[in-house]
Design brief:
3-stranded antiparallel sheet, alpha+beta, about 230 residues
């Protein structure tokens, strides 16, 4: 897949954060779980629990002089199912550590709305970022990986996953997969190593969303258009 193909088929990216997260994201960037654990000085044994094991609930992080941060729960994961679908000799701990080392974006509205409507989140207000794919790829292309699956879920016929699940843009077999898949089921996740400190440069709009409704527009870039929303 070329960068141009990625931008053409997926011109917008979406990220779901906790309610009220926009100011911290705008000022400090979008950070992976591992990056947050570093920033907030979380040490073992708590660090192991939060960064190497399944998080059954979201966990707030606090530190003097730092804004509130929230580590998103991993409710869609089950360790027993994960262990059975991992390849390349990976353990669940290694998979969690891999996921926690990256920041995640959805590439379709269908996927972000599916997440917003999930039982664990539908009754809680969420902050949803809509981003411009082209500008993010132009700046962070060498640090981007693409996934053909929801790597953070083992629900509904958990798919095999391993060292080859995440591929660089140019290595992703988009054309071959497009023969039997719609775009929303072709490239499922776009992830960036560690963090996106300048993520605000790529955000087009920010909305408060609950279940299947957009509650309000929190922020909008001057060059955004009416369709820049989840």
């Amino acid at each position: 897949m070329t960068q141009d193909e990625l931008i053409t088929h997926y011109p917008r990216l979406y990220h779901m954060a906790h309610d009220g997260a926009w100011d911290a994201i705008r000022n400090h960037g979008l950070k992976s779980a591992s990056a947050l654990l570093d920033d907030y000085g979380i040490k073992d044994p708590q660090r192991h629990t939060l960064g190497s094991c399944r998080r059954p609930e979201s966990v707030p992080l606090k530190a003097e002089g730092m804004p509130l941060a929230v580590l998103r729960d991993q409710k869609p994961m089950r360790d027993d199912v994960l262990a059975n679908c991992l390849e390349d000799g990976l353990t669940p701990q290694q998979w969690y550590e891999l996921l926690n080392s990256r920041t995640f974006f959805w590439l379709s509205r269908e996927r972000i709305w599916r997440l917003l409507g999930a039982r664990a989140y539908r009754n809680v207000t969420q902050t949803v970022l809509t981003l411009d794919t082209a500008s993010l790829v132009a700046k962070h292309g060498p640090r981007i990986w693409l996934s053909p699956i929801n790597s953070g879920s083992t629900l509904f016929k958990a798919q095999p996953r391993g060292l080859d699940t995440f591929k660089r843009i140019t290595d992703f077999p988009f054309a071959a997969r497009a023969k039997t898949r719609q775009p929303s089921n072709n490239v499922v996740e776009l992830v960036v190593d560690h963090s996106v400190p300048d993520v605000a440069d790529f955000v087009l709009a920010v909305h408060a969303v609950r279940d299947d409704k957009i509650l309000k527009e929190i922020w909008k870039a001057p060059h955004a258009v009416a369709s820049d929303k989840p």
